[in-house]
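$ fold --in a.seq
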Amino acid sequence: MQTKEVGTKTALSKWVSLKGEAMAAAACGVLLALGWGIGYVAHGAATILYGLAMLVGGYAKAKEGLQTLIKEKEIDVNLLMIVAAIGAACIGYGAEGAMLILIFAASGAMETYAMEKSARDISKLKELKPETGVLYLNGQETVVPIEQLRVGDLLIVKPGERIPTDGVVQSGASAVNQASITGESIPMDKQKGDEVYGGTINGQGALYVEVTRGSESTLFAKIIKLVQEAQQEMPKSQRFVERFERIYARIVIGVTLLLLVLPPYAFGWSWQETGYRAMVFLVVASPCALVASIMPAMLSAISNCARKGLLFKGGAHLENLSRVKVIAFDKTGTLTEGRPVVTDLVPYRAFTEEEVLQAAASLECLSTHPLARAVVDEARKRGVPLDRPDDFEALTSWGVQASLNGERWKVGKAGLMDPSFLLDAVVLRAQQLEAAGKTVVMVQNSAGIVGIIGLQDRIREQTKRAIEELRKVGIASAMITGDQRVTADAIAKEAGIDLVFSELLPEDKVNMVKQLKQTYGHVAMVGDGVNDAPALAVSSVGIAMGVAGSDAALETADLVLMNDDLLKIKEAVMLGRKMGVVVKQNMAFAIAVILLLIFGNLWSGIALPLGVVGHEGSTILVILNGLRLLVNGNERGEE
């Protein structure tokens, strides 16, 4: 409970910080506009408004810059922008100084918003972690916090309950939904000696589980830890930008100080001219245009993506996506629909497909197992009428049996069938279906096996085309899944995927993504489940399915496909590439203008209004160039 309260307070403080920055930027803009409006008739009042605009909009950045200066002995861009704005105001250009503050404050608020959106990392994930377990000792059941559980304790897990911690089944049998850990779409049958994982959901049977790991060492706890560690890693590009900003700021401040002292002795300038040119340099050298080179383009591209059902949590993720060389896909719920469907009906003993389906669905309609629901759904889709069985009995981990129209029927695994009825032809056909990655259900009456039903998690309608479209733009595809090798190979072959990595636990998926990053550089990961969250976090770009995705996957991912449309990934990649081109254009132009103004000021001197026009004009131009991505982001972007 304490952890949740701390998380809530942290989220609240982030929201207050974001809201404060946005309000400060808006207030700065209002004051600046008022100053412009009355500047022609009340110059003194306009000056006061400009000063208030600078104070309101620049307070947070000035405080941050001073803290960096005091604690780290470094000059950053925050402080440089404040000094440049004050310098402009000191030589009579308060409006220009306020404009510098407005642009910088707005970009800071946007950056905070992007960071806050991506920082809600594992709040939903932690909520899935069990808090209590039922300890079974000397015939007594006691509910205890999972922190008090010790290795060797015996737990009882009742039907429908979440398994508290990792352990081994000592008695009982049930089907356990392990989707949160392995991604398996079909619950796994568990019996004595089988391992179970904390955070997974028990099915219809009761299990007695011996604890094998403490609450902090469970596989589910490792998932949370992996997400935390991955999100704390700072990308190389971010470290480079921070180093560049501080170096640039120190250079500009150093050159400005030199310009305030040396020219009267070196060039014979008057002190008035020296101060004037130094302030012009400080204004034209401020990195406003450089800052605007990236953010407006990123926000425009993100807005474009949002209209197409692509929700990015920050512009950097779009930039990273443009560099991706391989995309790793989870299987269940991502490449596939996440639920089994009937794919094959093989009748025997003069039965038709409809008769086999009618018998199987009539028995399965009383079961809650996912395979049973798939059989019943197929019968309803075909319009097959169902009968009501008598003496129904669910055999956990095996299937069901009941009387139907006076005859005894069984529906389930081959092990449930009478061995004498398992003829060679029936066994061979079942093996062929299993080799194709399908789950086999047999149907038997008193005379023998009357049919075989094959079920499989079907791939999404657009999966194959999406993989092909990515291949056309030079992006390879891989599958990393917790499913069995045979199933994974079958789905990969149907989808057209070449790289297949199967039978992976969440920590194995993380290691696989890291290996792909070492081989290909930038790697994206697409997933939908809690088990995918660590791999999503460690990838260059984590992509979650918006409709089918779990809360944990949605919170961890950098990009959410709102309509689960895999074809949109290519559109995002191409838009990211186009954005990269625009950003390079903007940066080259901004640097060229800054250098031109600096050399012009040092060589022959330029008027401050001309310097401000050149500086602010370049800023406006790079912003407008970035805004083009709002409407023409569909270009191929391969420049």
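$ fold --in b.seq
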Amino acid sequence: MPAEGMQNDLPAQLLTVRIPDVASIVSLARNKEPLALQTTKISKVPAGSISWSQDGAYLGAISPNKVTIYDGKNQQQVAALDLPSVVAVSFSPKNTYLNTFQRPPQGSGNAEKNLKVWDWRKGTIVMQLFQKSFSRDHWPAVAFTPDETSALHLVTNAVNVYNPQNFSQGVAKKLAVKGLAGFAVSPNASAPLLAAYVPEGKGAPGFVGIWDLNQLSKGDSPAPIARRSFFRANAAQLLWNFKGTALLALTSSDTDATNQSYYGEQKLNYLSADGKNDCIVQLKEGPVHDVQWSPSGEHFITVAGFMPAKSTVFTEACKPFFDLGSGGHNLVRWNPQGRFVAVAGFGNLPGDILFFDKKADGKLKQMGATRADNAVSLEWSPDGRTVLTATTAPRLRVDNGFQIYKYTGEKLLEQKVEVLLEARWQPAPPDTFPDRPQSPRANGSAPAPTAAAKPSGYVLPHLRGSAGASSSGNFSLGHDPNDSRGRIGVNAHHKSLVPGAVAPDTKTASKNAKRRQRAKGKGGEDGQASEDSSQPAGQVKSVTEGVSALTTTEPQAQDDAGADPAKRLRNLQKKLRQVQQLKDKHTAGAVLEPEQLQKIASEAALLQDIKLLEGQT
């Protein structure tokens, strides 16, 4: 961990706060308790919207008919472009070019070239095209490779590729595929890849393909390196990992074929860039709320399923690796260093946030928890030590403001704003802030974080506020009582569980193993007593181990140890019926969770214990 003096040498972290028609940049005051804000030189900038460059070096502020560019270090104006009806701006990866989109005048047709690429330092237009409409999901409309050697633009049935060194020569090469609806360029500059998506239509499935950008030409397009087809998908979000070795395609349809969701259906598909592996990511049944790659590209986390949603960590090869548990969550964010993770539930959820620390062996351990009431956004600071949450209009027009929380869940700052449209951090170049582990608790003066309140069970209206409320059941939309957290898999290769596989070790299973070992040692010391028992020692051991094994998924089975054989038999027969129901679901094609597969794997032990107990009753 850097010394205190080295930490003071790090650049200041800036916040951009936007209210109606005005944007402000403020910095966090250093070494002050409690945490405070200091306004910088840009205190009142007319801005309908703002856009930072990827490295935070420049800020583009949009006013009604003008784009003003400021230096991110000293907040001085460095350029201004007069643009009527400008809607959006975007910087290229190395800040050489600027994309702008202007709303076309009514009745102008395609004569008005409203999509422009600027050499903004010179104030000159290097390319201009017509684009009918603007979409946040497909912005920037002209995408550059990381080294800015190619610029790509989506048109009907093709992705046109331009040479930024000579835009005047027109299209240098293209990817021509009928029905193309979206594309994404990989972030690896040495061997750039192009992923493109075609929705289903006229009975034909939709698909996602990956092409080598260097192999394209003006002629016929080559076959994709990797391809995956699917039905029931009319939109897709393409997510590359940082290394450009794997792609996630989050597909969605407007309707749910199973009639279980009003919001349609989502599926997550995986493709390796070399074409050797493609599959659907096995998730809990229900919508895919969020997915994000780690900054290293070695893991991704999903939040999926009907509430309570399940959060799962996958490896780069799409193997389920770690179960973060279930809860009222719909958002996941890695910090820029890839060490800490925040899992939260915003929107129509209470605002609970869980913070996890990724250890060297890949396991994730919870550090803290908090609740950000009414928050609609969450973003890690560039140094990866705090998160910024905000309640903004027009999503919510009450309780607007923003908060800053430490990775332990401790609230460091809260600022109320009458009407807040946006609050976000200034980005920082990679490696600006070092990767630091948690601060030792012994050295910290801050109080321990207060964990988010555990969701209570549903209480019938006529019982609320009464003594009977506590006995009204344990149903909860925010918590799965059978949930389990921990590492997924049976060996170092993190193989996912399948019917018949050995269940992964858990804390409960470990305790049971120690208990059996102690019982075995005690039996050796007191062997005569065992031999004099009216029940065969082998039979007693088998029944005891069978009941203990079930505690890995059914903790209540421990209470049956002292029950009479007839009661234990009924309980085991009930569990066997549950196993059969799960097997029927799996045969029908349903995707089961690890704990459900674990129950199926216990069938043989259940049958053996039932047979032994039947001999006693």
